[in-house]
Amino acid sequence: MNQLSSIKALVFDLDGTLLNAQKIISERNQKALMRSYQSGFKLFIATARPPRSVHTMVSKELLDCVSAIYYNGAYVRDANGKTMSFTISRADSEELIDLMCVHNETDSISIESEDILYALSDKTFAKNAKHMVLPPTIVTPPELKKLLANKILLFHCSSIVKRHIMNDKKRLSIVETDGKELMQIMAQNVSKSHAVAALCKKMNLSMDSVMSFGDDWNDLDLFKTCGYSVAMGNAVPDLKKYASMTTASNDEDGVAQIVEQLIEAQ
Asked: Would the keyword Zinc turn up in this protein's UniProt record (predicted)?
């Protein structure tokens, strides 16, 4: 770990990385992150989750020490409490909503807007509860179209819909996670790496001095842009190809194992 003495900041994904299978930050991981903060490292949490969900899983003690990146980068809160919000254009949102309605897949779409989840059908939560903390607010298609969407979620959508959406990659940021059963759609150029880069610029930090931890495809952009990247032992196989190193799984405190070594090395 001596060659990593230039690391100044640490970025952590949550699910499958900092959280274990029980969706808890272990005592060892908690202590390692607090030690790293006290040692002078800048800390970032970068997740697909909304703020309300993160606040139920991350202690206030730790949240007070980190800059938080939500919705894969579409909503950001820096360590001083200042926020940045990036939304999908109204035209693009309307097109996606119409597409789901035309194909009778209204129970497969939901929209995150400023920390509130909206959907068109009660069936959305019944079918996709594992991806949601609480049931969404049910609205009509016209009402859904009026929202400023930080992120659009598509669950188990048909291959026809997927093909249509993938043709819009130039206009939207699209990530497939959870075994490709979930499509997460943000505005063009929105990503975890863009959010981290914006925060690092404020802190006069180089992306070369950032170490990122992750396990799924929405961490790939961070792996490509940070100076060092750590894949969890449970990470999707192809992500490991882009990692500087691999650690133990999220159930084996893989994050803490690396952070502890990093603290000692510095």
From this structure: no
Average pLDDT value for residue range 223-229: 96
Q: What is the pTM of this model?
A: 0.87
**pLDDT tens by residue, 73-92:** 999 999 889 999 999 999 99
Q: Based on the domain organization, do 106 and 155 belong to the same domain?
A: yes
Contacts of 94 by beta carbon, 8 Å cutoff, 6+ apart: 145
Query: Tokens 């770990």 belong to which residue?
Result: 1
How many Å apart are CA 106 and CA 123, to the nearest integer? 9
- 75 and 198 fall within a common domain: yes
Same domain, 114 and 130: yes
Query: What are the structure tokens assigned to 265, written together?
Result: 């090395």
Structural domain ending residue among the three candidates 170, 187, 204:
187
Domain of 94, in residue numbers: 90-187
**Which position has the token pair 């992150």?**
33
Count of all residues that appear for the chain in the document: 266
177 and 197 in one domain?
Answer: no
C-alpha to C-alpha distance for 105 and 225, rounded to whole angstroms:
36
Residues 106 and 81 in one domain: no
18-47 b/e (C-beta count within 10 Å ≥ 16 → b):
bbbeeeebbeebbebbeebbeeebbbbbbb
CB neighbour burial string for 52-65, b if at least 16 within 10 angstroms, e if fewer: ebbeebbeeebbeb
